[in-house]
Amino acid sequence: MTLRFDLIGLVTTDMARTLDFYRRLGLDIPAGAETEPHVEVALPGGLRIAWDDVTMVRSFDPDWTPPTGSPRINLAFRCADPAEVDRWYAELTEVGHHGQLKPWDAFWGQRYAVLHDPDGNGVDLFAPLPAAG
């Protein structure tokens, strides 16, 4: 069997707030999922993302402890255009989510911004910059 990358799993301390954050980014998360200890959804292209609350994780790994320090990975969401990067960043920070880096034009040719989800995971927003003419 050939390995296939299939799922990104995240641990959350507040399922409702976390799912609200990802719904705002456009993920199709079923209504009522915030009451479940495990939630997963399929993303376009077949990759899945899942969230487990701390109680669920400790049910099979009683010694689990949350990591400390800065996130080591970020989830990156491609936006339609640079204005959409700015719009998503503004919308999410206006409702209280942490903005790590405000939108900027990166030297590698993208409009880029970095947020943190409610558990401190890095969430990048990016879009290609128009070609210089």
From TrEMBL:
Question: What SUPFAM superfamilies does this protein's entry cite?
Answer: Glyoxalase/Bleomycin resistance protein/Dihydroxybiphenyl dioxygenase (SSF54593)
Domain annotation VOC: ranges: 4-128
Q: Which InterPro entries match?
A: Glyas_Bleomycin-R_OHBP_Dase, Glyas_Fos-R_dOase_dom, VOC_core
This protein's name: VOC family protein
What species is given as this protein's source?
Micromonospora azadirachtae
Please spell out the taxonomic lineage of the organism that makes this protein.
Bacteria, Bacillati, Actinomycetota, Actinomycetes, Micromonosporales
